[in-house]
Amino acid sequence: MKVALATLLSIAVAAPLAAAYASRDVVLPVAGRATGADGRLFLTALWVTNPSERDSVDATLTFSPAEEKLLPHASALHLNPGETRVVDPIDEKILGMPAALGSLRIEATHDVLATARVYSRGLTTSFNALPVQFAIGTSESATLQGVAPADGRYKIYFAEVTGNPLDISVVLLDGRGATMATKRMYIDHGRQVTTDVADLFPQFTSGTATLRVEGVNGSGRIVVAGSHIARESQDSTPFEMSFTTAPRDRLGVLEALTYIAVAVAAGAALFLRR
Predict the structure, then answer these.
(1) pTM of model > 0.85
(2) What torsion, rounded to 10 degrees, do the Cα atoms 185, 188, 189, 191 define?
(3) Residue 239: is its pLDDT beyond 60?
(4) Whose CA is closest to 196, among 46, 125, 204?
(5) How far apart are CA 5 and CA 121, in angstroms?
(6) Cα dihedral sign for 87, 192, 240, 155?
(7) Taking a C-beta distance cutoff of 8 angstroms, is the pair 223, 28 a contact?
(8) How many angstroms separate the CA atoms of 180 and 24, rounded?
(9) Residues of the chain with pLDDT > 90: what percent?
(10) Element housing 172 (H / E)
(11) Are 195 and 229 in contact (CB under 8 A)?
């Protein structure tokens, strides 16, 4: 519970992320609720929007607890065209238990937008769900910016999304892109893991750096997010993982066939008009 509380506190002082992503399969790398020793309650509010003006959406929300002894919990959600559902705060219906920390995945019949707001007394922030299609696996990597240990702490949130384990390397890079240190980690199937750069790289105490998260071995895939918490003000800046876009120097087979079919149909139409 102390780990869960520290994780939620690090998010609750973060600034909002700038982008939102519509997809049929999205995940929030961290969500939940916890109570501090002083009785302060940390909660998560959830917004889910169906951006379609025509189609209804049926979605499954799966909460995967960080604690290995706890099982994932699924709940259903229906959205009419254009509807936004606000669940504030998420509770046992979504978590499957009174209090827990983990990741929240939303699988829907059509694209949805999802945003979470973690808040407590005097602390609040909003962040967006990431499309599962951006998750990285073996021989793939993602970059996180914003590591500056002299200025404050840096939290990293991992969420596995395929139900398979993945060995990863977290690589600490200096401003020139040179490797300063590497730490191997194991992300179990379907699990959410939170760690701190100070725990991974205790020798790195000054300067600035970026992180490269690399999939090393296994069939799992993960999404990653980071958050830098300023030492003095406790203000926090969240950082999204980098996304690899497919190169456009070649077309897939289905896409190529579609273009060919369109070209043939257009050519036939012009021929018949003559």
Answers:
(1) no
(2) -100
(3) yes
(4) 204
(5) 14
(6) positive
(7) no
(8) 38
(9) 62
(10) strand 166-173
(11) no
Q: Would you call 98 helix, strand, or coil by DSSP?
A: coil
Ramachandran quadrant class, 157 (left: phi over 0; alpha: psi -120 to 50; beta: rest): beta
Residues 119, 123, 126, 130, CA torsion sign: negative
Mean per-residue pLDDT, 40-49: 90
pLDDT confidence of residue 243: 77
Q: How far is CA 24 from CA 61, 102, 104, 134, 171, in A?
A: 12, 20, 14, 12, 31
Contact status, residue 147 vs residue 208, Cβ threshold 8 Å: yes
Q: With helix as H, strand as E and coil as C, how does 109-145 read?
A: EEEEEEEEEEEECCEEEEEECEEHHHCECECCEEEEE
Rounded CA-CA distance 1/9 in Å is: 12
Does 249 score more than 80 pLDDT? no
Nearest CA to 224 among 157, 165, 269, 133?
A: 157
The amino acid occupying position 227 is: S
In the block, tokens 């959205």 appear at 79
- At residue 164, the pLDDT reads 97
